[in-house]
Design a protein that fits this description.
The protein has about 425 residues and is mainly β. Helices cover about 5% and strands about 40% of the residues. It is built from 2 helices and 32 strands. The strands form 9 sheets. Strands 1-32-31-30 form a 4-stranded antiparallel sheet, with no helix packed on it. The chain has a 4-stranded antiparallel sheet with strand order 2-3-4-5, with no helix packed on it. It has a 4-stranded antiparallel sheet with strand order 8-9-10-11, with no helix packed on it. Keywords: Repeat, WD repeat. InterPro entries: PP2A_PR55, PP2A_PR55_CS, WD40/YVTN_repeat-like_dom_sf, WD40_repeat_dom_sf, WD40_rpt. PP2A consists of a common heterodimeric core enzyme, composed of a 36 kDa catalytic subunit (subunit C) and a 65 kDa constant regulatory subunit (PR65 or subunit A), that associates with a variety of regulatory subunits. Belongs to the phosphatase 2A regulatory subunit B family.
Length: about 425
């Protein structure tokens, strides 16, 4: 049973475009939660220790650091404006007291260091306490500077900037399991970077045809395997997934495995190709499975079986009859993400009307929950929601015709160890946790 923990954001204010959350990501321990928005800002929340007065609630997430990651730019050669929107954030495993994360907009990836400082040096020889330079002829004695305690300050500083490697818009970044390299993907190419080298990258996938009129598909997402640093996958707008092994060749144009589910000819329609486009692909933590999200469903694939998924979960099948209107208002092109829980036993993805869906892989049970201001009361238990597709509507059901398609949950994240989830609904970040009886 899930209960509300907290909400971050301005619930009652008009939504400014720059405040819309565009990515959500827990770090490896789950102690930090990062969000990026369309205004190029990154906000990091830190998990506070649970209080003795409220033992029923795990500690809350409070703002730890906020910084401007990207600014709007202009490409003068192409007369193209590059917006500051943060497309993806990926944390690096923590090696020391500082934290590192990668953030990217459409063109430029940045490596940020987030560190704490609670001491400052005092007693300099060549300058006064207020910073003014002292006259060297008036210095009569040598002082040893000392470190004095100060209020905790969290600093975010850019350590590397990886630019000028993508002609098209970056849709994915993924840190490799060797923790030294990462890949970045745009519509037609995937590049492999070393975290220490900013002026060059290796192009490992290039699907751009010699004649762009022959282009039939684009890359929609890519991810490194969680344990094998030579393996990665990428998905396409045609609903296929290719698994590549970098040991085979420098340019991985020839895949090692090709995952595709045969289409049922009887259900083919004008929208078939659009709704089969994969918007997200995620390896399970074990590395045995991968999950893909298309417009209407989530599929779980066994890496050892390419011809069909081992599990298929319908997210909002009731929208199949609404595809025409969804095409007209461009909602059919929305890119929903998906995520695993820490033990790979459950998966989560978003829907419309601020609904999000959770599927238990063991019991095959599923539940629809809503991120709304009604549920954002302390310890409020989330009530399952149901959508009525026609006929007589029950009391607690909502009609498919009254769904709000402007309210959509595209970005979700699951704590790597605990049953804590983060759900981005427009400009609000909702955090829910499994209720402890």
């Amino acid at each position: 049973m899930w209960c509300f923990s907290q909400v971050k954001g301005a619930i009652d204010e008009d939504v400014a475009e720059a405040d819309i959350i565009s990515t959500v990501e827990f770090n490896y321990s789950g102690e930090l939660l990062a969000t990026g928005d369309k205004g190029g800002r990154v906000v990091i929340f830190q998990h506070e220790q649970e209080s003795k007065n409220r033992p029923h609630l795990r500690g809350e997430y409070n703002v730890y650091s906020t910084f401007q990651s990207h600014e709007p730019e202009f490409d003068y050669l192409k007369s193209l404006e590059i917006e500051e929107k943060i497309n993806k954030i990926r944390w690096l495993p923590q090696q020391n007291a500082a934290h590192f994360l990668l953030s990217t907009n459409d063109k430029t990836i940045k490596l940020w260091k987030i560190s704490e400082r609670d001491k400052r040096a005092e007693g300099y020889n060549l300058k006064d306490e207020d910073g003014r330079v002292r006259d060297p002829f008036r210095i009569t004695s040598l002082r040893v500077p000392v470190l004095m305690p100060m209020d905790l300050m969290v600093e975010a500083s850019p350590r590397r900037i990886f630019a000028n490697a993508h002609t098209y818009h970056i849709n994915s970044i993924s840190v490799n399991s060797d923790h030294e390299t990462y890949l970045s993907a745009d519509d037609l190419r995937i590049n492999l970077w070393h975290l220490e080298i900013t002026d060059r990258s290796f192009n490992i996938v290039d699907i751009k045809p010699a004649n762009m009129e022959e282009l039939t598909e684009v890359i929609t997402a890519a991810e490194c395997h969680p344990h094998q640093c030579n393996v990665f996958v990428y998905s396409s707008s045609k609903g296929t997934i290719r698994l590549c092994d970098m040991r085979e060749a420098a340019l991985c144009d020839r895949h090692s495995k090709f995952f595709e589910e045969p289409e049922d000819p009887s259900s083919r329609s004008f929208f078939s190709e659009i709704i089969s486009s994969i918007s997200d692909v995620k390896f399970s933590h074990s590395g045995r499975y991968m999950m893909t999200r298309d417009y209407l469903s989530v599929k779980v694939w066994d890496l050892n079986m390419e011809n069909r998924p081992v599990e298929t979960y319908q997210v909002h099948e009731y929208l199949r009859s609404k595809l025409c209107s969804l095409y007209e208002n461009d909602c059919i092109f929305d890119k929903f993400e998906c995520c695993w829980n820490g033990s790979d036993s459950a998966i989560m993805t978003g829907s419309y009307n601020n609904f999000f869906r959770m599927f238990d892989r063991n019991t095959r049970r599923d539940i629809t929950l809503e991120a709304s201001r009604e549920s954002s009361k302390p310890r409020a238990t989330l009530k399952p929601r149901k959508v009525s597709t026609g006929g007589k509507r029950k009391k607690d059901e909502i009609s498919v015709d009254s769904l709000d398609f402007n309210k959509k949950i595209l970005h979700t994240a699951w704590h790597p160890k605990d049953n804590v989830i983060a759900v981005a609904a427009t400009n609000n970040l909702y955090i829910f946790q499994d209720k402890i009886n």
